Every structure is written in structure tokens, then in C-alpha cells.
UniProtKB/TrEMBL annotation:
PANTHER family: ABC TRANSPORTER, ATP-BINDING PROTEIN. Belongs to the ABC transporter superfamily. Residues 1-19 form the signal peptide. Residues 941-965 are annotated as: Disordered. The lineage of its organism: Bacteria, Bacillati, Actinomycetota, Actinomycetes, Propionibacteriales. One of its GO terms (molecular function) is hydrolase activity. The chain crosses the membrane at residues 596-619. The keyword RNA-binding does not apply. This is CocE/NonD family hydrolase. Residues 637-865 form the ABC transporter domain.
Length: 965
């Protein structure tokens, strides 16, 4: 299973500080997932004196997990969640990381979710100080390894907002020992108000790092769309405004009023004033990087118009200049990537290796610079992973001597195109459209008829300069530079530059949909100014015969634009040759087996590559396999006395016993937190039970059991390589099992997936429902005798759910066994033949669905006239003479009269008709919801407690041989 998969893709935030206290264990434990101890952390009050506390959760390694020091203490990792999210987003990753031998702390940041306070944008006195209080918490825990009294051995991982807090915290608290910040900023002012005009001139030496920008002091162009999305996500986390928010017109939500006012000023004027810029700089790692000593792995997304590669470049240069170990990876993702894209293969291995080395003394992961070349739409083949030496840095040792860093190679190209006149329309409308921030790569369509180029290069608003066709391929790695001469009709200018790849037939593609905004001030109208512009940093290949096209536009819909009309003249500086300079870094291709995703972690390829994963676990733990159980050879699945408890005493699974027979579709039913998924994971050996056994056809299940070849499973969602097609993912999964291809049944599985032509498309383009169907098909490969599906209908629409019911029924009818975990009562009722109901970790009922619902002692009577008439009918029946077998009469919420007891139904109807009650229906069949709520509903706590005692048996409504028990 994955350890830091969604971690760095879903991470985005951080938290508060002052006094620390643990919440009473009973207060929130049952609302937490398995393995976590809930905590309440009191932190710095708000400026108005309002007290603030954060919700947090501590995850400990299971007993006996490797990685502890001689005192039994473990290194710790803090996980910061995403802007607008909460710690709930990180629970699955925290559990997996704890299983790898780390103490893990998650928390919901100040101003978000259930934590108090307001959002200050990682302010030093609030969010940054909060992290120090969390470090105090870890230092006081007996499970955490210490470097000194009060100094825990700890790393921090976070992405975007959380990546910034990781760097800021390390710059203010030297107790942080390792960092993995991802897709985050160096300077928030430059990120939200970017300036692409650089200070160097043609005579200056080119930067040694590939993605350096180093802009001039003039503030750039406000990213109005990204800023609006950023602000809106903070409002979305609001749990209600307060008086101060109301004073701001009720539009501030949980933002600190100072932050709110700064945004509103910039959004209204389209310009970030100096006060706003200073606020953004105060929330930027740039201010503290000279004090960061923690070795840092920077992971930055190449597909990111919010925080570009230049931000990671600037951070890397600053850290290296301070003598801090630093490594850089550019991943094929970022804030503009498709929402369902998984970056696990880019993050899992290097992040684990980094923490293992710098927190526990494991092997040195090195500092290789990795990056991905995307498919541009003009060439064929999958994205290509490249690896260079250490990231090229213009760093010194403080005495002016170069630190060991590679040299960036550069290629100069001539561009054709004379000086051109451009119009900037009033208010910037119509505006060029190069990207839609926050919506994924929706504008990646290419070609003259596509949405990309015609919308980005509007006639009259854009100037075009083009190179000759390249005589040989060239790989761009970093930020190209171009020298322009700009003339304006007014004293300033706002322009946007982009670099397109053009094929021989004229098809144009903009790599990563990135543009370089520039603002010039202090111009003399009518007189040209020469400037050097840093184009967006990226990594992509330009093939032989392709050309590069520079487009300079007066508008871009993602930015705030001048309201007044103006004219510009744009040409190449000096009309000079070699105006465009392309950077590259010598690198080698990393093959598919290039250890970015090591074989022991092929859970990234598919969440349940059971054989590879459990074999590794067996080798590591050296446990002896239990002896097969006699007499169970013909029973597909037998669960006896399963227990899973955690150090805080919480039992996620408590004495669970049941069995599933051939031909059954068994529903494992229960509310969220009942222990269903934990049970499912124990069924396949992904986690070890503290007590009890699982047998498949008489053979015990532990990690690595050969009998798992007879089990297919989809647990906690599917996992795929995003750049492979659906068909290729299935073949890759099956190849990892080592079994003959003819046993797989690919075509049968593809029929289940029902993807049509999409089966040949990359999985990264799939919807959630398509990925879910492919995951179920993957679990069915090899026609396993026992099929385990955890919430299989997630993401499916009603027709697909109906079709899946038929698939599962036919699969079981062929003599196999299906177990479906779900909290959807109606779906279990229609899909399953048998049911096992869990509540608070225990089995409270098992039986055959048809028998459970038949209810021979219950009669449901519908009457005309509404609820008042139903109440009158209940009184009539309750007063029946001689009804000693009548146990209870009441009225359902839906208005039906419910009669419990063995009174003949004709007599009930006769009594009502005689009382002049109009009877509309008589039914003896209940719904599963009725049965379920009678056991686990909040109105029946006593019954739940009674059936859950250790010395009692689960309620059973089926004594037939072969029933689920």
C-alpha cells in the first residue's frame, strides 16, 4: 500500500501554538479512524484575545514495528494538509507512514475545519508559531525519539500551503530535522503578483540554475483568478462569520481581517499595493531560508500556473547558499493537473528514502535531479522520466567559490518577425485564454481547429515571432530567455509572453499552458525600452523539424488587466539575432524499471498487488505461517475472532466472526467507523490481526500466504499508473503477479469495466466512476474464487450500479464468493444474498437477506388520510380484544402502521375496515434500513450494547446451512 501518495498531493496547510493538552480519550476517539489518538492543542490566541485550539491526531507504529531506537522510540513526521481542507485528508497516509515505523502527527490548521482561529496565511506569529507548539507536543511524547531534552527527531511534509509552512517552521525552529515541501512557493508576492522581466541584460552571464527568474523590483501582474480561488477556498472552510467578518461586509469568512482587506483591495483595483506585498512576503519562506538547516527535498509540479518551477529554483539556491543539503524533483503534476491524476510514483519512494536517511540513518538517497518530459500532443509515446546529476545551482560557499553544481547548457535561436503594433482593449476584454486556473488541463486541445492556440493568440492583441525548424531534437529544461523592445502609448505596459511548439503542419501546442506576465513602469510614451524576459520554466522536448513560436499578448484572462485602452509596439531587441536562448541540462532516461517505483512498493501500480507486497512483508517480519485448519477446505472464507486494537486501547475490530459460502454475495454492512475496511484489510493480510484467524478454503491468511492467489480485492479505492491506458494497467498488474497471461481473463475483465474506446486512453483522463470500474475489473483478473470489494459503487451512476449488481450476481452464481463492504443499505439489500452487520467493531447480526427482511411477525399497513388517520388506526388495533399475541403497535415516520406480533393479518384488516379506516396496503416485508437501524440506530443504544458483549453471540436470523454467519 502507499505511504506518502496522496500525502504530497493532498497536503496544503499547518497549525497553531501555546499550551498543549490531550483531549479525553473518550471525547473524540470513536470519530477518528483506526490507529489515531485525538488531541486538542491550545495555541496562540487571536489578536482580539480569542482563545484558539486545534484538532490533531497522533498515529503510532504498531507494536513490534522496526525503526525504533534502543529506548523503543521512533522518529516523527508531521503532515500538513491542504488549504481549505483538514487533517481528515491525511489519515490514510498517516496510518501507512506509521506502519513504516514513524510516529505521525496530523492536525487541522488554524482557521480550517474543527480548529479555531482565523487564517493568517502562514504568519510568523500565528501559523508558524503553532508548529513550534506541535513540536513541543512531540517532544513530550514517550514514543518519540529525542535529539536532546525538548528536541524531537522530526521531519515535516506538506504541499502548497503546507509546503510553505514546513519551510517557514524550519526557519524559525531549529528542532526540525528534515523537510519534504511540495508544489509550494518561495516568495508569495512573486507567485501571486508575478514579474517575468529580469534584471540581467545581454552582456551579463546567464544564470547557472535552469529555472532562475530573479525579477526586477517592479511588482508584476496580479493573478486575479488564482487569488479568487485561493480566497474562495478559505471562505468555503468558514463555519460562520463573526462580528469582525461582518464588519468587512460579511465576505471574509474565517480570514483574518488584515488578510481579507488586502485581497479585497487587490481584487478591486487589480494592483497589489505595497502593504499587500509586504503581507505576502511575511508569509514567504524566502525571508527565513538562510536559517533553515534541515536537509530539504523540494518537489515541484511542472504543470502549475500558481507556483512555478522558478519558485523551487529560488528556494534551492537559497538553501544551497546557506550550506543546507537540498535535492530537487520536478514532477508531472501541480495545481493545474487533472484532479484525478496520481503523483504517487513521483513522491513515494524519494520521500520515504529522504526521511529514512535524515531521521533514521538509512541509506543516503543522494540528490539526483529528476524531471518528466510530457507528451505534447505533437509526438508519440508516454511521458519520459529523465535523471541528471545534482540540481545545477549558482551557489557559493560564502567566500565566492562555486559549490559543486552542474552547468546548464544553452542554445541560442534566431527569431523572425519585425516590430508589431498591438491593441490593449478597454478593460482587457476580449482576453486571451491560455489556461483555466484550478480546472485542470481543459485547454490542452491542439491544432488549428483546437481550443488552444486561436484563443491564446487573439488577432490584433498578439505579436508572433518564429524560429526556423530545428535540425535536431532539443530538450528544454528550465526557463528560456528572450530579449524584447517594448514601446507603449502610456507610461506603463502589461504584456504576456508564451513559447509554443509548432509542427510541420502548423499545429501548435503550449507546453503546460504557462505564460510569463510582465509589467513595465516609468516608460516614456513612444520610446522603446529593451528588456529581457524569463519565459515559463518547464521541461519538454522539441523534435527535429518542429519550430518554436513566441507569442506576446496584451491580455490574459487569468490576470488583472489595465482598464484603459493603449497601444504597444513589440519587437526583438536590436532586431537582434539569437534573441531566444533555450536552457537544457544533460540527463539520462530513467527506464520503466528505473526504481522510481521499487518492486516492493508496486501498490502504486494497483492498490492490491497482494503477492509482491505481502511477500516483502513476510521477508521483513519473518513470521511463521499458521497450520491449515482441517474441515474448512470447502468453505471459501471463514473469519474467527478477529481483533485489531491500538495502543490507546481503542478496538477498531473486536471479536469479529462470520463465514461466506460458495454462491453467496455477502454484504459487510455498517456505518462509517464500524471497522469494515479494517476487517477487509485483515482478510488479505495487509494489516496483522492482534487475535483471531482468517481462512480461505482452509488455508490461513497471513502476509504472503500462497492462498491469496485465489483472492481478488479492491480495498480503499483503485491505484493505477496514470500515464498508462486502462488496458495497459491491467496487463501491468497481472504481469506483477508472475502468473501465466492465459489465466488472466483480460477480455472478461474489460467487459466488466465497460470502458469502450476509453480503455486505450491514459487512466489520468478517467472519471472516478471509470477508475472504479477498472479497479473492479482488475480485482476480477484470474477469476478469483473469493472476491472482496470495499465500497464498489463509489463514483458509479445509477445505470452503472444496476449493471454491477448483475455482474456480481452472475460471478457468485458460477460457484464463487463475493464479499461487498458498504454503508449503503439500499444497495446491499438489492445486491447481496447474505449480510453481516458491524457496529463499533463488532458483529451484531448475520443472516440471509431475504429471511431478515421477510419479518413474519411484523405487518406494515398503509392507510388513507395521513398521519392522523394512521394514529387512529394504531389505537383501534391496540384495543383489539383477545390479542394476547399483539406485542406492539406504532406508526412509522412514513405514515404506515406497524404491528408486531402473531395476530393474523386478515383480522387486523377486518378491525380497521370495521372502524371505517381506509386500508391502502398490507405488507409483511421490511427494508434493510429498518433492520439495520433497529440494531445500530441512535434510538437503540441498549440493544447494541447487549449484543456486543464479549460473552454473547451475535444476533442471527438464519440457521440454514450455508448462511453467512
Amino acid at each position: 500500500m502507499t505511504v506518502l501518495p496522496a500525502l504530497l498531493a493532498a497536503l496544503l496547510l499547518v497549525t497553531p501554538a501555546q499550551a498543549i493538552q490531550a483531549a479525553p480519550a473518550s471525547a473524540a476517539e470513536q470519530e477518528r479512524p483506526e490507529g489515531g489518538t485525538p488531541l486538542t492543542v491550545a495555541v496562540t490566541p487571536e489578536p482580539d484575545g480569542g482563545q484558539v485550539s486545534l484538532e490533531a491526531t497522533l498515529f503510532l507504529p504498531p507494536e513490534g514495528t522496526a525503526g525504533a531506537d534502543d529506548d523503543g522510540r521512533y522518529a516523527a513526521v508531521m503532515l500538513a494538509h491542504g488549504f481549505g481542507g483538514s487533517q481528515d485528508d491525511l489519515f490514510a497516509q498517516a496510518r501507512e507512514l506509521a506502519a513504516e515505523g514513524f510516529v505521525v502527527l496530523t492536525w487541522t490548521a488554524r482557521g480550517f475545519g474543527g480548529s479555531g482561529g482565523r487564517i493568517h496565511l502562514n504568519a510568523p506569529d500565528y501559523e508558524v508559531d503553532d508548529v513550534s507548539r506541535l513540536l513541543d507536543l512531540l517532544a513530550a511524547r514517550p514514543e518519540v525519539r529525542l535529539d536532546a531534552a525538548g528536541d524531537p527527531r522530526v521531519g515535516i511534509a506538506g504541499g502548497s500551503y503546507g509546503g510553505a509552512i514546513a519551510l517557514l517552521a524550519a526557519g524559525s525552529d531549529d528542532r526540525v530535522d528534515a523537510l519534504v515541501p511540495a508544489i509550494t512557493w518561495h516568495d508569495l508576492a512573486q507567485s501571486l503578483v508575478p514579474q517575468s522581466v529580469v534584471g540581467s541584460t545581454a552582456g551579463d552571464a546567464a544564470p547557472q540554475s535552469p529555472a532562475a527568474v530573479d525579477p526586477v523590483a517592479t511588482a508584476g501582474v496580479f493573478k486575479k483568478r488564482w487569488a479568487s480561488l485561493f480566497f474562495a477556498s478559505g471562505l468555503g472552510s468558514s463555519q460562520g462569520g463573526d462580528a469582525e467578518a461582518a464588519a468587512e461586509g460579511g465576505s471574509c469568512g474565517r480570514f483574518d481581517p488584515t488578510v481579507c482587506r488586502a485581497f479585497l483591495r487587490a481584487a478591486t483595483t487589480g494592483v497589489a499595493d505595497e502593504a499587500t506585498l509586504e503581507l505576502l512576503r511575511a508569509s514567504s519562506p524566502a525571508a527565513v531560508l538562510d536559517r533553515v538547516e534541515a536537509p530539504t527535498l523540494l518537489v515541484q509540479g511542472a504543470q502549475d500556473s500558481l507556483f512555478g518551477l522558478d519558485q523551487a529554483d529560488a528556494t534551492a539556491r537559497a538553501l544551497a547558499a546557506a550550506g543546507t543539503p537540498v535535492a530537487v524533483r520536478w514532477i508531472d503534476g501541480g495545481h493545474d493537473a487533472a484532479a484525478d491524476t496520481s503523483f504517487a510514483e513521483d513522491l513515494l519512494d524519494p520521500s520515504l528514502a529522504w526521511f529514512d536517511h535524515y531521521l533514521r540513518g538509512g541509506p543516503d538517497p543522494g540528490a539526483a535531479f529528476d524531471f518528466t518530459l510530457p507528451v505534447t500532443g505533437l509526438d508519440d509515446g508516454p511521458p519520459e522520466r529523465r535523471r541528471a546529476g545534482e540540481y545545477p545551482l549558482a551557489a557559493t560557499d560564502g567566500a565566492g567559490a562555486d559549490i559543486d553544481s552542474a552547468v546548464v547548457e544553452r542554445e541560442a535561436l534566431d527569431l523572425a518577425g519585425g516590430t508589431q503594433t498591438l491593441v490593449a482593449p478597454p478593460g482587457g476584454e476580449p482576453a486571451a485564454l491560455t489556461s483555466l486556473p484550478g480546472t485542470g488541463p481543459l485547454l490542452q486541445a491542439t491544432g488549428r481547429a483546437g481550443a488552444g492556440y486561436p484563443l491564446a493568440a487573439l488577432p490584433g492583441e498578439s505579436a508572433v515571432f518564429e524560429s526556423q525548424a530545428l535540425a535536431e531534437p532539443f530538450t528544454v529544461v528550465g526557463s528560456p530567455r528572450v530579449r524584447l523592445a517594448v514601446t507603449s502609448s502610456v507610461a506603463d505596459a502589461v504584456l504576456f509572453a508564451s513559447l509554443w511548439v509548432v509542427s510541420a503542419d502548423g499545429t501548435a501546442t503550449l507546453p503546460r499552458q504557462l505564460v510569463a506576465p510582465m509589467r513595465l513602469e516609468g516608460l516614456t510614451p513612444g520610446e522603446p525600452r529593451e528588456v529581457e524576459v524569463a519565459l515559463p520554466a518547464s521541461a519538454y522536448r522539441v523534435q527535429e523539424g518542429q519550430r518554436l513560436r513566441l507569442v506576446v499578448s496584451t491580455t490574459d484572462a487569468a490576470y488583472a488587466l489595465p482598464a484603459d485602452p493603449r497601444l504597444y509596439r513589440v519587437g526583438l531587441a536590436d532586431g537582434a539575432p539569437d534573441a531566444l536562448v533555450l536552457p537544457s541540462v544533460p540527463s539520462e532516461r530513467v527506464e520503466a524499471a528505473g526504481r522510481l517505483v521499487p518492486p516492493a512498493l508496486l501498490g502504486v501500480v494497483a492498490a492490491l498487488l497482494l503477492l509482491a507486497l505481502v511477500s516483502a512483508l513476510v521477508a521483513r517480519r519473518r513470521r511463521r505461517a499458521p497450520v491449515p485448519a482441517p474441515g474448512l477446505e470447502d468453505v471459501p472464507l471463514v473469519v474467527e475472532g478477529l481483533v485489531k486494537a491500538y495502543r490507546n486501547g481503542f478496538r477498531a475490530v473486536d471479536g469479529v466472526s462470520w463465514r461466506a459460502e460458495r454462491g453467496q454475495v455477502v454484504g459487510l454492512l455498517g456505518p462509517n467507523g464500524a471497522g469494515k475496511t479494517t476487517t477487509m484489510r485483515m482478510l488479505v493480510g495487509l494489516i496483522r490481526a492482534d487475535a483471531g484467524t482468517v481462512h480461505v478454503h482452509g488455508e490461513p491468511v497471513v502476509a504472503g500466504s500462497p492462498v491469496l492467489r485465489r483472492v481478488g480485492a479492491l480495498i480503499e479505492g483503485p491505484g493505477f499508473l496514470p500515464h498508462l491506458s486502462g488496458r495497459e494497467n491491467l496487463h501491468a498488474y497481472w504481469a506483477a503477479t508472475g502468473r501465466p497471461e492465459h489465466e488472466a481473463g483480460f477480455e472478461e475483465a474489460l467487459e466488466v469495466a465497460d470502458l469502450g474506446v476509453a480503455v486505450e486512453k491514459p487512466v489520468r483522463s478517467y472519471s472516478q466512476g471509470m477508475r472504479q470500474r477498472l479497479g473492479i475489473a482488475q480485482a476480477m483478473l484470474g477469476r478469483p474464487e473469493v472476491l472482496l470489494l470495499d465500497e464498489p459503487t463509489n463514483g458509479l451512476d445509477p445505470p452503472q450500479i444496476r449493471a454491477m449488481r448483475g455482474v456480481l450476481a452472475r460471478y457468485a452464481a458460477a460457484g464463487r464468493t463475493v464479499v461487498v463492504s458498504s454503508h449503503l443499505l439500499a444497495e446491499v439489500e438489492q445486491t447481496c444474498s447474505h449480510v453481516v452487520v458491524m457496529h463499533r467493531g463488532r458483529v451484531v447480526l448475520t443472516g440471509e437477506v431475504a429471511e431478515l427482511l421477510e419479518g413474519s411477525q411484523t405487518t406494515l399497513i398503509g392507510v388513507e388520510g395521513g398521519r392522523e388517520e394512521a394514529l387512529r388506526a394504531a389505537l383501534l388495533l391496540g384495543a383489539l380484544e383477545g390479542s394476547d399475541r399483539l406485542e406492539e403497535v406504532d406508526v412509522d415516520p412514513d405514515g404506515r402502521v406497524r404491528v408486531r406480533g402473531r395476530v393474523p393479518r386478515p383480522r387486523l384488516v377486518t378491525a380497521l375496515v370495521g372502524g371505517r379506516v381506509a386500508v391502502s396496503s398490507v405488507d409483511g416485508r421490511r427494508h434493510l434500513e429498518e433492520v439495520f437501524m433497529g440494531l445500530v440506530g441512535e434510538d437503540r443504544p441498549a440493544q447494541v450494547a447487549d449484543v456486543g458483549q464479549p460473552d454473547s453471540q451475535p444476533t442471527s436470523r438464519s440457521e440454514k446451512p450455508g448462511g453467512a454467519r
